[in-house]
Amino acid sequence: MHPGQSPSHPPGYWPRQTPPPTAQQLQGRMLAAQPEPYPYHRRPVHRPKLRWVATPPPGAWPRRPVVVPERYSGPPSYPVPPRWGFPSLVWRRPTSVPGTASDEIRPIDRVPVLSRSLVVVLFAFAVLAVAAASAEIWRYVLLVQGRDSALSRSVVAFSDGFVLTAGLLASILALLPAGLSLWWLLVARQAAADVSGEDPPRPVWQVLVGVLVPVANLPLALSVVGELEHAVLRRPRDVRPKPSREVLVWWGAWLLNWLLLGASIVWRFRDDVQSMADSVLLVALTDLAAAALAVLTALVVRRFSALLAPSDALAVREMRVVKVEGAPEPEPRSGRPAGAAR
Predict the structure, then answer these.
(1) From CA 288, how far away is CA 166, in angstroms rounded?
(2) pLDDT tens string for the chain (342 positions)?
(3) Are 279 and 268 in contact (CB under 8 A)?
(4) DSSP assignment of 122-180, as one string?
């Protein structure tokens, strides 16, 4: 085909005439050619009258799997002890893990434990001392009855056995509350000194002399216990200790017990019959004084211990172990037999 020559069409072909655009089409073309105005919500938008929404057909989504509950086969088994649990020790405050570098137990922590044990021992000794005093009083009654009439041999033998057993047990077991009381006194003095931040008012040897040495312990016991009460109550050190009424009553029982003990020992060296009968009555009074001293000592110990280490159940908060530092690595478990019970 040469330039300027009309294209050749097959026979019978007639080209289709394109109709001219309408006014609406021309207006749409003009609007499309113009730049988009601002803001966008003012531009003319031809929204369709229909809105098609596609939804999946039924059964297109996979069904949620049904979880079958597993059969309980017992608690879990670990190859080593879990590190998130509580340490294997008795719960106390402050706690310490065995095998770690922990501080030595302070005297303030020993006071509650010692006081509980000491109070129980003191009350038990008081009951035993009352039993020994009852045996001595029964012997004295038999001595009075024997002045006018003959006594039964079995009754006298039983009375002698009762007096011997009760007196021997009271004499031997008196060492236990005495030793515990002295131990608690030394620990309480050190605990009170630690709380106040000052040294004890007197050295240990003076305390031992003021409590154990006869005759010297009569006046010095009041000074030792009064100083302990002064320190327990957090009073200033430059103020002279003033014992309370409870401490004075305890000191009175202390004096009465030692005086009756000395009198009963001295009275046994007399050989006449009346002196022997009086010695039985003195021993009974000594046992009763020892029982009263034990009860008063328990009350003083309980009061001083409550002042030193008060424990309020309402003020105790729940505690939990957050982490354990410095503990030794646990030994792995060698193996668990298949048939072993969980």
Answers:
(1) 13
(2) 555 555 555 665 566 666 777 777 777 777 666 665 555 455 555 565 677 778 878 777 777 788 888 888 888 777 877 777 766 666 555 555 555 545 567 788 788 888 889 999 999 999 999 998 888 888 888 877 777 777 777 877 877 788 888 888 888 888 898 899 999 999 888 888 888 777 788 888 888 888 888 888 888 888 888 888 888 888 887 788 888 899 999 999 999 988 988 888 888 777 777 777 778 888 888 889 999 999 999 999 999 888 887 765 555 566 677 777 777 777 776 666 666 555
(3) yes
(4) HHHHHHHHHHHHHHHHHHHHHHHHTTTSPPPHHHHHHHHHHHHHHHHHHHHHTHHHHHH
Helix 153-173 vs helix 175-196: angle between axes, to the nearest 10 degrees?
30
What tokens does 67 get?
Answer: 């979880």
Contact between residue 301 and residue 118 where contact means Cβ atoms under 8 Å apart: yes
Q: Torsion-angle region of residue 326: left (phi > 0), alpha (psi -120 to 50) or beta?
A: left
In sequence order, the 6+-apart residues with CB closer than 8 A to the CB of 305 are 111, 112, 115, 188
C-alpha distances (whole Å) from 48 to each of 41, 51, 208, 212 are: 17, 7, 108, 112
CA nearest neighbour of 202 among 194, 193, 214: 193
ω before 57 within 30° of 0 (cis)?
no
